[in-house]
Write a structure and sequence with these properties.
Number of domains of chain A: 2
CATH class of the largest domain in chain A: Alpha Beta
Helix content of chain A: 10-25%
InterPro entries (chains A, B): NUDIX_hydrolase-like_dom_sf, NUDIX_hydrolase_CS, NUDIX_hydrolase_dom, Nudix_N
Largest interface: A-B, 46 and 46 residues
Bound molecules: zinc ion
CATH topology of the largest domain in chain A: Nucleoside Triphosphate Pyrophosphohydrolase
Strand content of chain A: 25-35%
Cofactor (chains A, B): Mg(2+)
Radius of gyration of chain A: 19 Å
Number of helices of chain A: 2
CATH superfamily of the largest domain in chain A: Nucleoside Triphosphate Pyrophosphohydrolase
Largest sheet of chain A: 8 strands, mixed
Pfam families (chains A, B): NUDIX (PF00293), Zn_ribbon_Nudix (PF14803)
Shape of chain A: elongated
Oligomer: homodimer
Protein name (chains A, B): ADP-ribose pyrophosphatase
Number of strands of chain A: 11
CATH architecture of the largest domain in chain A: Alpha-Beta Complex
Structural class of chain A: alpha+beta
GO molecular function, one term (chains A, B): hydrolase activity
Chain lengths: ~180, ~180
């Protein structure tokens, strides 16, 4: 960010009055341009004892498997975004349940949130951002070909919680921070 | 957003290839400038059976009471942001517990998240953005002078859950969308 989106003047990086952090400040029009983390919202689409995954047709991690998820858009809620991404990427209509995991990825300036979701029918199809979409039993999950640490962690928590029988009751959101060094 | 933050050219609003929504696109340098909701992170600071609130020294809602909360910054996690805001606005060091509420405010392009938090000592002080800070028993909460619907809803959930004895066990995140028409 070099130029003011409001007036095209060159921006200054400085700490505004009444602030404690450096911001992109426009001396010409007086505006301050804050930057904030973005939310990635997705679902864990469950059909019976299977989970729906998408193989990515786009970078990053082209060809790797992911839970359906994407950037939250203006004007929608986190759960609506999760349902929308599931429909767009996996062609699946889901009933969205409770928030299941919240993973902070500070080095990517992102927060990832996954909702439990159920599919009434095994109907799905690859959207434009997916090469293929498929249902997996736990023993079929392509653990070595998952796209992101947040997807791997969410699936690990999910299968452990399912085995422990806690998903049908109350539970805290599963949450942790992802480190820059984490690789699949 | 009128000018490209990268090259200062005038932006075009159009639907990029492989997208389904209008974006701010720069025809000069090819960059696409996405806009996404921002997270507001805060805490419910609990000392014994009291909750800590701040009276706002800034707009919007100058003079009204709020839970300590503010915009999540780049490079931090949601829980770190909640602890930071609690220290900055209320001068209180808290131990942050589980995520308690997640409220979508689509018309404000915001997601509000509040963490349960405990204070080891009744030590607090008004930060620059607060006129005063005080501990409240449930019957003392200034319900008619709260700053935001998300704060009111979170406090209502909190006291109901505390009365029901569920806060010490597992619980789903309390979550709903706030409507544009909602007023305190
Ligand atoms: Zn400007
Ligand atoms: Zn440009």
């Amino acid at each position: 960010m070099k130029f003011c989106p409001n007036c095209a003047a060159i921006l200054t990086i400085k700490i505004p009055a009444d602030d404690s952090r450096e911001r992109h400040v426009c001396e010409a029009c007086g505006s301050i341009h804050y930057q904030n983390p973005r939310n990635v919202v997705g679902s864990i689409p469950v059909y019976g004892d299977q989970v729906l995954l998408c193989r990515r047709a786009i970078e990053p991690r082209h060809g790797y498997w992911t839970l359906p998820a994407g950037f939250m858009e203006l004007g929608e809620s986190t759960s609506h975004g999760a349902a929308r991404e599931t429909l767009e990427e996996a062609g699946a209509v889901v009933r969205v349940g409770p928030l299941y995991s919240l993973l902070n990825v500070p080095h990517a300036e992102q927060v990832h949130m996954f909702y439990l979701a159920t599919m009434a029918y095994p109907e799905f199809s690859a959207g434009e951002e997916s090469l293929e979409v498929a249902l997996f039993h736990e023993h079929e999950i392509p653990w070595g070909e998952l796209a992101f640490p947040t997807v791997k962690q969410t699936l690990e928590w999910f299968f452990a919680d399912r085995a422990a029988g806690v998903l049908s009751g109350e539970f805290h959101v599963r949450s942790r921070d992802v480190l820059p060094s984490e690789r699949i």
